[in-house]
């Protein structure tokens, strides 16, 4: 028995060093939970507290290495080589760290760095602009903010949140302060790479950025002033600039943004709305911008499906698909202690912002609980509800029908939630480092149709790309949502008045067909349909047909309300 204990302990610390092997640890701990009687000091299996102690030490070790990796990624050589004052800002927009240039330069207006890390701005508009970037209300891309009253520009880079502990997890935005002589002139080669201009035009533009004088630039290039004017006029037309000053400003700004821009994702633009309580809610739009609006929520992890695959079909059918990003994913601000029933007011705020009146809601997988609770608690929010492969309340879960990985996680959670959180933290680092390895292992437990999705190179690449984009604020939200699914929803689903279309795959190895039928029995006005051979990723097979049938359902008339409130409930 002592040898078994030693093997388990060894596996724990090996996983801290090689997080990609976390599924072997999950398997080992699950076996331990299945036959672990109360232990003693004479070689019996470890007590839960002993196991938790080893896991906590392993997580700390893993987290230390995780922090070093993320720090290297965030502060790579490009950032360290930039000669301008640089600040790493935390959640409260205070400087956690700064480079020597910032300490030397930011001692007075227009921007002053105080001893406690607070920034003092002479231009209030510049401060408000930075707040908007910092809250992600302006998106996740590198942005330039220029002061209209002071000769200063801020180059702002929102940072993907690290799940590692310490200061690196608190960094939200990196800011470079550009002013006067601090600005480095972009090379002719970089300008030609950024803008659709000729080699000769890029050389002239480089000198104009550097010395500002057309005659001197022409002399240095050994060309006539007439030729220089012709090149300048051509460049201004291509960049749609109205003056030489505007041309130089535009060239410098774009070059600086390109220099600090992280690798771009080929994602549809993520729109944002600042809610009355200061949180940011984001969403994506696909299809026809003037078409019929349909709301949708995606899966646990917010990585499926990739709606770009359906964009042409949406346009052809006059649909404006609005994918709402749940709190903690993408740019939507995480909300502490959130439950499924709390999301309705956020959806209402978005509908109010977009001018939508009772749009249909089509929810997939982990989006189902949020949509169901919103429909039950806010009967005037949707005119119909679609559920595709939806997650179900905990009372309907069939543990013996779960796929192997999710079943192991659930058994560990029921043994002690602390075990689930600790193993989950090791797992998140492993998935981040090697998502292909995890998805290949997961596929082995799924039905053939689901395996075909995960074995498709294009669909797999899209899944991983969306996963990285969704976890911009860190991946810990996955643990939070999984725990949320183990709690009662505390909502009476029988109060739902709108018609419901509920589809589920009969070969779903994660949410069994029996679980789905249990949920369907709780739903009034529901039209349930099951699909032989299909599983968790059935959305790629039936999404078009599902939306078509959903939109053909007779809509429920709007409920009578005693009084319309002029304010948006954001509780």
From TrEMBL:
InterPro entries: AB_hydrolase (IPR050471), AB_hydrolase_1 (IPR000073), AB_hydrolase_fold (IPR029058), Sig_transdc_resp-reg_C-effctor (IPR016032), Tscrpt_reg_LuxR_C (IPR000792), WH-like_DNA-bd_sf (IPR036388). Gene3D superfamilies: alpha/beta hydrolase, Winged helix-like DNA-binding domain superfamily/Winged helix DNA-binding domain. The keyword Hydrolase applies. The keyword Hydrolase applies. Keywords: Hydrolase. It holds the Pfam family Abhydrolase_1. GO terms for molecular function: hydrolase activity. Residues 194-251 form the HTH luxR-type domain. This is Alpha/beta hydrolase fold domain-containing protein. It comes from Alloalcanivorax venustensis ISO4.
